[in-house]
Design a protein that fits this description.
Blueprint lengths: L10 E4 L11 E6 L3 E6 L5 E5 H7 E6 L1 H8 L1
């Protein structure tokens, strides 16, 4: 299993899409801890999953927080 170095507000891609109308695989990390709260970038719904399940579901990190801040400026 590949270990990823993710932080708060990073944008990640998961293996399976969110079952909303947008079928988005991209999520933003909203809260870190024993559980991880992620927000679907397609519909905006927030999902709370445990860290082990998240580590199995993550495919890649699309953008780190500092990269997102550079784009916004």
């Amino acid at each position: 299993m590949k270990v990823f170095d993710y932080n708060l507000f990073d944008i990640v891609e998961l293996k399976k899409p969110h079952p909303c109308n947008h079928q988005s695989k991209q999520f933003q990390i909203v809260r870190l801890g024993a559980d991880i709260k992620i927000m679907c970038l397609g519909c905006g719904n927030v999902i709370l999953i445990d860290r082990d399940k998240f580590n199995r579901a993550i495919r890649k990190i699309i953008a780190h927080k500092n990269e997102i801040e550079k784009i916004d400026k």
